[in-house]
Amino acid sequence: MKYPYAVFDLDGTLLDSMPAWQDLGSRYLRSKKISPPENLGQILGGLTLEEAAAYFKQAFGVSGTVPEIVEEAYGLMRLEYEEEIPSKPGVRIFLERMRESGVKMCVATASNASLAASALKRLGLYEYFAFILDCEESGSGKNSPAIYDQAAGRLGGSRENTLVFEDALHAIVTVREAGYYVIGVSDPAQKEKEEAIRELSHYYLVDYETAEPVWEA
Predict the structure, then answer these.
(1) CA 67 – CA 38 distance, rounded (Å)
(2) Tell me: the pLDDT tens digits for 126-178?
(3) How far is CA 174 from CA 32, 47, 185, 216, in A?
(4) Average pLDDT taken over every residue of the chain
(5) Is the pLDDT of residue 46 over 80?
(6) DSSP state of 67
(7) What is d(CA 96, CA 3) in angstroms, rounded to the nearest whole number?
(8) pTM of the model
(9) Residues near 171 by Cβ (< 8 Å), separated by ≥ 6?
(10) What is the mean pLDDT of residues 108-121?
(11) Residue 78 CA: distances (Å) to CA of 62, 105, 114
(12) According to the model, what pLDDT value does residue 111 have?
């Protein structure tokens, strides 16, 4: 087998969770009895949670420290992961095919590992992965290949024999430049960047239900 190891992103790749993240700012303000402005998504686009929290304090007078606001926002997302967020259609069958073929898999995510685990367990997907590595534990964001190298190494693999499944363009740029075999995963949140993602990906996965056994490529 050419690719016996696989690293999966979580949000937008395994889980259809981007709508929940995109609506988090509005839901947080509504939880504080504040009507969110119509252009809130544009204002928050590209901001970290910490930066968004600082903006809420400055623009809306939200009480509490920035870390406290971030924790409250994470609390809203925790409920989403534990109770609501669905997986991408066909994911479980696809992962089963990979496991039956002997592929060792893990998750590398910018989301908190405990949030990831709660969603994967609820959806019956947790058992397919050897571990979950998040950016905080790895000490690296996805603009660096470090998190992928750590994940591949823990599986027993290397850049040359590990598949990486990602939906976000910046992460795909990172793993492509690092020399991994890149599986670009379609997600509506990345629609405007789809052309670039297709160009950079070795294989573009439109949906898991029709995906080819790329680990045998």
Answers:
(1) 25
(2) 999 999 999 889 998 898 999 999 999 999 999 999 999 999 999 999 999 99
(3) 38, 20, 15, 23
(4) 93
(5) no
(6) H
(7) 16
(8) 0.88
(9) 9, 142
(10) 92
(11) 21, 24, 9
(12) 87
Which residue, 22, 4, 1, 6, is CA-closest to 208?
6
Amino acid letter, residue 101: S
- Structure tokens, 25: 């700012």
Distance CA 106, CA 49 (A): 25
Instruction: State whether the Cα torsion 82-94-162-153 is positive or negative.
Output: positive
Question: Whose structure tokens read 């949000």?
Answer: 11
Q: In sequence order, what DSSP letters do the residues of 4-58 get, joined into one string? A: -EEEE--BTTTB--HHHHHTHHHHHHHHTT-PPPTTHHHHHTT--HHHHHHHHHH
Query: CA Rg, the chain, in Å?
Result: 18
Q: How many CA atoms lie within 13 A of 131 on its CB side?
A: 13
The two tokens of residue 197 are 């993602």
Burial class (CB in 10 A: 0-12, 13-18, 19+), 35: exposed
CA distances from 210 to 44, 117, 143 (A): 35, 26, 30
Helix (H) or strand (E) holding 66: helix 66-79
pLDDT of residue 188: 93
